[in-house]
Amino acid sequence: MTAPHAPTPSQTIGPFHGHALPVVDGGAIAPVAHPETITVHGYVYDGAGEPVPDALVEIWQPAPDGSRTGAPGSLRRDPVTGRAAGRDGVTFTGFGRVATDADGRWAVRTLPPGGVPYLSVALFARGLLRHLYTRVYLWEEPGDTLLASLAADRRATLLARPEPPRTYRFDLRLQGAGETVFLEFSGAGRP
Amino acid sequence: MTRTTAPVPPRPRSCPPYRGTRYRTPARPLVAVQDPEAVELTGPVFGAADITPLDHDLTRQHTGEPIGERITVTGRVRDRRGHPVRGQLVELWQANAAGRYAHRLDQHLAPLDPNFTGCGRCLTDDEGRYAFTTVRPGAYPWRNHVNAWRPAHLHFSFFGTAFTQRLVTQMYFPGDPLLALDPVLLSVTDEAARARLVAAYAHDLSVPEWSLGYRWDVVLDGPCATLFEEDGR
Ligand SMILES: [Fe+3]
Q1: Which among A4, A12, A57, A119 has the fewest CB atoms less than 10 Å away?
Q2: ipTM of the complex
Q3: How near does any CA of chain A get to the CA of B119, in Å?
Q4: CB pairs below 8 Å between A and B: how many?
Q5: In chain B, what are the domains?
Q6: Catalytic residue at B56?
């Protein structure tokens, strides 16, 4: 790439994003009381096995019909007060954003993605120079090239554990034993 | 100082490393995804309901004026080919002019400002342009090492047309002597890349008797579906 279009480097999100980024209903991706709603939840752990209480988890996924256009309204604001207004309760935007709590725990309620078996995740935290990408696989599909390319123990880190009814557990381990498979996409899109 | 004949020791790193990375950086290499159908080549979208018209002005979010040097910060967001990133969300958060965040865990003994929360957002226009009015944040201490101070900085979050273009970073101010001592900035090891995190003072953006102007352009890395379609690759 030529110098004028050299990418801007990433920097850590730091510990004090809490007023700016997390929002009311950020994890409520599914329309209110939708009968197909699933819950996906877990913990974020560091390399010492300690929970990470200041991480931000972002989710991006297709709608149940497989469309990937998304929709506005994930972060609605109230024009009267300027505060977060929450979602409209109807629109499926495909995007979710939640902060981990003091126990390092996160949770979203969403609809199963259409066409693919996974939710895409971007994970941000103090101490991470750049955010990390991974995927929450809700089920396995035989033709999935990413899962097929991984050894069994590594593949297991991408598979959510069903906790019936309609709940899945997915922990993120930043480093060490059971370290989650993290992804990079610089070659994606090229045939 | 007296001159010595002893060999000059290798110059130590000018700054200690960023300690918070120790247990949070994956030890294993990232796994490359080559899939042209990857969901991550598309991304979330935002609209008028996701912001309010005053969100870009951090000096007008309370009943009074915040303390500090008023600044305007603007620039263009582009992809690696130089195409503008249109209609996408830009988010900003920062310390107040005294160097303290309006966050309960920030216990730096600098005053809070009742008229400053330090959060803003806007959507980029058709040329990929964003603009904020705010106050220049103060430097603040942190406990990375003895006498560690963060240079004045603005935290920024950007969305592109693909989830792979997501960027969270920090903008710095030109001429700040703390830039050479900051482990967070120095975590970007390439000097030219570091320079891209430092805004330029732009006199043409200064508003007479109102604010000082800074220009900071941003290029989002990472592939997106349209990028490669246009390339014909
Ligand atoms: Fe900061």
Answers
A1: A4
A2: 0.96
A3: 5
A4: 257
A5: 1-37 (no CATH), 43-223 (2.60.130.10)
A6: no
